[in-house]
Amino acid sequence: MAVSDDEAFIDVDKVEKVFDVRRRAGFLRRELRRVRAVDSLSFRVARGEMVGYIGPNGAGKSTTIKMLTGILTPSGGRLRVAGIDPSRERTRLAHRIGVVFGQRTTLWWDLPLIDSYRLMHRMYRIPDARYRENLDRLVHLLDLGALLDVPVRQLSLGQRMRGDVVAALLHDPEVLYLDEPTIGLDVISKARVREFLREVNAERGTTVLLTTHDLQDIERLCSRVMVIDRGRLMYDGPLAGLHEVGESERTLVVDLERELPPIEAEPARVVRVEGPRQWLAFPAGESAAALVARIAARYPLVDLSVREPDIESVIARMLHAPGDAAGLPQDRSEGVGS
Amino acid sequence: MAERGAVVEGVRAYRLIAVMWVRSSMTYRTSFAVTLLGNLMVTGLDFVGILLMFSQVDSLGGWSLYEVAFLYGLSATSFGLSDLALGSLEGLGGRMRDGSFDVLMVRPAPVLAQVGADRFALRRLGRITQGLVVLCWALVSVDVEWTAAKALLVPVMVISGAAIFCAVFVAGAAFQILAQDAAEVQNAFTYGGTTLLQYPPTVFGKDLVRGVTFMLPLAFVNWVPAAHVLGRPYPVGLPGWAAFASPAVALVCCASAGLAWRAGLRSYRSTGS
């Protein structure tokens, strides 16, 4: 996506991260391997954008986020967030960013939830009025009011995640990084977190970059998605485009009144028949409504449901799509001798 | 100026986090009381060992019981102070392995202050208490003609010594970033160092004494200045003013450790996820 120079809030230019990995290769012998976790990665994110950052495990998602937050120092290339070089001015940047690590909490296990927020208040030097206003608003939006005096260890996973999201936003960060924000959450908690993030983005103009395994997170939240594989950016654009590139398919499950021969309805094709129930695959970019209308006009329909493709299969299809524009990903590790 | 700002920021963050840990530990009051008591007893037994030794001999390497107690008190108090302040750095490797170190890195406070204050535990006051008791006992018992300069050297030794041990903790932490399971190496220099300094330098080989004077200058925690106070020759050939060099040595140690920490942090690699 085209983002001009001056409006690029996150600016990643040919960034690399190389790890030297020592591996045991027999008695006292170590094999040194150079692993390119991120390879010449370039992208820009404008202020106020909501971007999904996805890819298989070990693709370099976390490494990218860690470089953007100043945790890791890039091996090469140029990286700026709000004009700041993260690894050089980590603490200055910290005031302007919020981070939620899905699997790690910033909250204090043995203390009431409110105590963690008071620490944030003082550590980030949030002005008193601002802190109270933000706390009231966030706690109300995420429905945590009754839990403020409960020790964090007694909270459920979903409650703790909501608690972490509040902690990350108390200081009004301009950009919010979310690493698997809905992992392990129940349906209601997921919906609440998503709705909340949309509101924060709309009201405060907070830039959001999230990694996820849940395609619905992307669908509900992100107008733009970036796919990374083996440290390289493989796709950058709208979600619909990802479906096209990957030729991913949704599945329409229809229950007919009785057993019938396979339904004929272009562009869908029947992939499975079981008694009166039939499974039809159709391109994810197509409207399900039009397809259903066509089938309903010609077949005796009793019930139906649509199944979304999951993110892994979409990515897998995209990465292995014939004539892949980005070319075949190269082997990212090279031996350097022992 | 920027350096000073970082120190002020660090102390502030340290205080904020230490208070949180103290409050956390107070949620388990009984456990806190028991560990504090246990800590006092274990460190107390440490000196009992030296007393037992002196029930069999009159001197150790030519040093009397009170003189050894003087060394012990100084070493234990200095180390106790540094252990209270930065002893948690020992757990840095674990923090890095489980990934929670990353959470500290995204906060607007110096990371060293945050890991230093991590799991801040008041039970460590036990060691300081015990060291001070032994030190006071030695001060009133030891046969020294006190002058103003010698009296002033005692608090200077304790504070410089604590600073030198702090530097060792920080340097060890920097090393842990590179080799994440190196907590034992760090322990060898911190706990090992304080135990070494509890005995007179005359019981050790010349090379070891030279090593802890010039390489890792632990000798300036107590051996060198204490030798001056007790009117004994320096453990190795040093000019007369060396007894007053401890603060300068501490400063150099802290500066070097700070640089090592900074270099270590830049090479931090984080975990896989």
Automatic annotation (TrEMBL), chain A:
Membrane topology according to the record: Peripheral membrane protein
UniProt main location, coarse: membrane
BP terms from Gene Ontology: response to antibiotic
Keywords (A to Z) from UniProt: Antibiotic resistance, ATP-binding, Nucleotide-binding, Transport
Domain ABC transporter span(s) in chain numbering: 16-255
Matches recorded under SUPFAM superfamilies: P-loop containing nucleoside triphosphate hydrolases
Gene3D superfamilies: P-loop containing nucleotide triphosphate hydrolases
Gene Ontology cellular-component annotations: plasma membrane
Membrane spanning stretches: none
Domain of life: Bacteria
One GO molecular-function entry: ATP hydrolysis activity
Subcellular location: Cell membrane
InterPro entries in UniProt: AAA+_ATPase, ABC_transporter-like_ATP-bd, ABC_transporter_ATP-binding, P-loop_NTPase
Alphabetical list of SMART domains matching this protein: AAA (SM00382)
Signal peptide: none
Name of this chain's protein: ABC transporter ATP-binding protein
Species lineage: Bacteria, Bacillati, Actinomycetota, Actinomycetes, Kitasatosporales
TrEMBL record, chain B:
Keyword Magnesium: no
Membrane-spanning residues: 32-57, 152-175, 208-226, 238-261
Signal sequence extent: none
Claim: Methyltransferase is one of the keywords in the record: no
Keywords from the named record: Membrane, Transmembrane, Transmembrane helix
InterPro entries, sorted: ABC-2_transporter-like
Pfam family name, one: ABC2_membrane_6
Protein name: ABC transporter transmembrane protein
Species for this entry: Streptomyces zinciresistens K42
